Amino acid sequence: NMQKLFENWREYGKSSLNEAIAHNIEEGAAVNVVLYFHGLSTNVKKRLNELKGRFLDSPNTVLLVPDLTPDPQTKSIPAGYIEQQLESLGSPEVNTIQLYAHSAGGKPMSRFILSSPPMLDKMTATYLDAIYGRRQAGLVGEVLDSMCGKVNIITRSKGTPHKWTEKLARTKGDCFNKSVIKQGHDAFKIPP
Questions:
Q1: Considering the entire predicted model, what is its pTM?
Q2: From CA 158, how far away is CA 161, in angstroms rounded?
C-alpha cells in the first residue's frame, strides 16, 4: 500500500535553509532524491512549486530545495545535508540522488560535491547554464575528477557558461555529457 506523506505537497524544514517535499512514499521503500541549487534572486517557494510538477509525479521521490538567497555563491550545504533531511522521513534507503544547479547555484553544488558527502556514488550532477568564471570552472573540473561519467552540462549556445564548458571539454570532455540548447537563460530554471 502507498502511504501518502505530506499530503497536498506539505512542506517542512528544519531551518530557514531547508525546503523539502516528499510525495507518495511507500512505507519501507527506497527513495530517489532530487537536490536543486537555485540561482540569484530566486523566489524559493515559487521555484519549489515549479519543480513539483517536474519531479514529484514519480513515486518515492524526495525533492530538496535549500534556500540559498540572496546569493547562492556565498552559501554552502553541509556534507550530511541529505541524510539530515531524510531523518524527517524515517531515514529511508536511497536509490539515486540527482543534483541540479541553475546559474549561480553551480558554485554551491560544486562545493557540496567536493565536501565528500555520504552516498557520492549514488549521485549524478547537472549544471544548467551554471559555470561562470575561471574559479567556478576549476571547481567543476574537480567535480569531474571525482564524478567522471556522472555529470551533465547544459548551456545556451553563447555566453560565459558556454565558453567555460567548451574549455572544460578540451581537457575533460570524456568525463561529462554536454548539451547546447538555443533558449534563453531563464529556460534552464527547470531541468529538462
A1: 0.89
A2: 8
